[in-house]
Amino acid sequence: MRTPAVMTLGLVLAPCGLLLNLTSTLTPGWRTVKGFRDQPVDVVLFQGLWDMCREQSSRERQCGQPDPLGYLSAQPVLGARGLMLSSLAAAALGLLLATLGVRCWRDEPHWVLAGFSGLLLFLSGLLSLIPASWYNHFLDDRDVLPAQPSPVTVQVGYSLVLAYLGSCLLLLGGFSLALSFAPWCEERCHRCRKAASSSPRRRGSISTVHVDWPQPALTPAIKYYSDGQHRPRPAELRADSRPKAGFPMPRPPPKAYTNPMDVLDGEKAVSSHGASSGSTKPYPSSLPCDSDL
Predict the structure, then answer these.
(1) Does residue 141 fall inside a structural domain?
(2) Residue 218 — φ and ψ, nearest 5°?
């Protein structure tokens, strides 16, 4: 298959950024100092991370200049040395992985390896951008980066510009190669969805098991009363379903309430006594009468 455009772009930008960073690290041109009082007007001092060179228009450049002010031992210079070397190492490793991942005599690129190479190149760009920005921030600060007092002028050197350009190219190239993770992620997601659709469904958990518990015994008032109607008990249904034989027995008449005492004895005596005496006033009875009840 053809090499994807993102990989091609990353393989073009990353080596350019590595070359620019290597040049800016080795060359003594991070800062230029001009305008010395006791020297000719055309004398320029180039200060880098490892060396300082003196140049005059009528003479050749002379490197290895003395450092009476302690420029090479300043914190921005020492920090830039370590970070730039780390950036170069990360960029070299990233390009090696990119070469193996993009093609390496394969029909298709190795997406994961190319993606990791992009991450390394992006990290390399950050490692070179940090010291360049730090150095530029203290470029004119003579207390942090020592230099002679005024009228001596301090300007940005070409090495610092190359460091900025190399960092940007490494960032762009690394990001472009890191996009190689996209096809790999898409393939993995497709496999996961396919495996999930083909796998058998899992049984329900124990919380979804249905158990047929026996019905509780109901009271007769509830058991034989349904829909507003009384239903006969099973025993009664069985008794009614049997064939009946014989003749019906006569039922005794219902027993009425009878008072064992004669409550009218006193009234009879009173009424007979009153009739003989000619008095109509009844004698009160000590026993209750049915009408009183």
Answers:
(1) yes
(2) -95, 155
Residue 290 has pLDDT above 90, yes or no: no
What tokens were used for 175?
């990001």
Dihedrals phi, psi of 57, to nearest 5 degrees: -60, -35
What is the reported pLDDT for 254? 60
Which residue, 164, 165, 168, 163, is CA-closest to 121? 168
On whether residue 142 sits in a domain, the answer given is yes
Q: What per-residue confidence (pLDDT) applies to 95?
A: 92
70, 81 contact by CB (below 8 A):
no
Q: Is residue 119 part of a domain?
A: yes
Number of independent structural domains in the chain: 1
Question: Measured between alpha carbons, how far is residue 164 from residues 18, 167, 242, 257 in Å?
Answer: 12, 5, 111, 125
Q: Within the chain, where are the H helices?
A: 5-26, 75-102, 111-137, 158-178, 181-198, 220-223, 234-241, 265-277
Instruction: Copy the structure tokens of residue 40.
Output: 């000719």
Rounded to whole angstroms, the Cα distance separating 233 from 243 reads 18
Which has more confidence, 61 or 131? Answer: 131
Distance CA 87, CA 17 (A): 11
pLDDT tens digits for range 175-230: 999 888 887 777 777 777 777 777 655 554 555 555 666 666 655 555 555 555 55
Residue 182: the pLDDT is 80
H or E element that contains 31: strand 31-34
pLDDT of 55-113, one tens digit each?
Answer: 887 677 888 888 888 888 889 999 999 999 999 999 999 999 988 888 766 677 788 88
Residue span of the structural domain in which 176 resides:
5-27+72-150+158-180
Return the CATH number at 9.
Answer: 1.20.140.150
Within a domain: residue 121?
yes
